[in-house]
Write a structure and sequence with these properties.
By secondary structure, this protein is mainly beta. The chain has a domain at 33-103: SH3 type barrels, CATH 2.30.30.30. Helix content is 6%, strand content 25%. A hairpin with a 4-residue loop joins strand 3 and strand 4.
Length: 108
């Protein structure tokens, strides 16, 4: 069974960043800009220095403000999710998701 050429001409696959893409449906619109190196759970190591991307910790997520630096002290692989334990410079040690932190960038 062959597809109708008129139907094929009407179908245009969505490609973010393509000229003429609908910005209302573009997943990049309104998303947070990643200014650091994004990494998966496997890319982090104990002893690395990281920064909180958003407020984390505490009951309401305000114990560690975004931008607070810290050091990875433990990594835990779970059945449903992975977590990283970070000791932040403000004194809190929090269990966070890999998406909540970013690596410190620089030559040091």
């Amino acid at each position: 069974m062959q597809a109708d050429p008129d139907e094929m001409a009407a179908f245009v696959p969505f490609r973010p960043g393509q000229r003429g893409s609908d910005r209302a449906t573009d997943p990049g619109v309104g998303s947070e800009v990643d200014t650091g190196l994004s990494a998966s759970f496997e890319d982090y190591r104990e002893g690395e220095f990281v920064t909180a991307r958003r407020n984390v910790g505490g009951i309401l997520g305000g114990a560690v403000p975004a931008g607070t630096a810290g050091e990875i002290v433990n990594m835990e692989r779970g059945l449903l999710s992975d977590s990283i334990v970070v000791r932040f410079e403000n004194g809190y040690t929090e269990q966070v998701r890999p998406d909540d932190i970013k690596r410190e960038s620089g030559w040091f």
